[in-house]
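User: Can you write out an input/output pair for a complex, sequences first and structure second?

Assistant: Here is one pair. Inputs:
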Amino acid sequence: DQQVKQNSPSLSVQEGRISILNCDYTNSMFDYFLWYKKYPAEGPTFLISISSIKDKNEDGRFTVFLNKSAKHLSLHIVPSQPGDSAVYFCAAVYNFNKFYFGSGTKLNVKP
Amino acid sequence: NAGVTQTPKFQVLKTGQSMTLQCAQDMNHNSMYWYRQDPGMGLRLIYYSASEGTTDKGEVPNGYNVSRLNKREFSLRLESAAPSQTSVYFCASGIHHFGNGTRLTVT
């Protein structure tokens, strides 16, 4: 049973607009969340993370929002750029080392 | 990716053969991880090592063994490969740094 879900397999956005990627989880023990970006034939690259004691974390064009009551997190990319086109994975962690990943959302940013 | 080296990049095995996937990091991290990624799925944690000398099971450990040889190296062993173990295997060092993967096919 998947504990972390990304229900949108793909997302297409125009360059300059906002990209919003969503992630839902079921386990209330998760206390840390991360987003990774992945290009084909490469390993995931860390983007941004958030602790469960916060509801927002920002790093440049990337912002992650956490809604613990809804067990939902989202990644906002503003403005979106063609180089952002990749597969994005969310991950949730408990006990420091128990990682669970979503199935990914393929983002296509059109010029 | 800089700092995490996985070998080999590709491997084809016959059912029942054994092999070891190697991973080395030069970032002095305590924790290291092995994941597998199957088509249409996210990464699933096989085993992790929180520090040198310790290893623990992740979500999908069956059919695998690991060794944390020293702080730098964390290896994953398939004793008797099965077609269900056809996958891309990723090693991670710390929570931020991944290798570029080993693509394994078991026929």
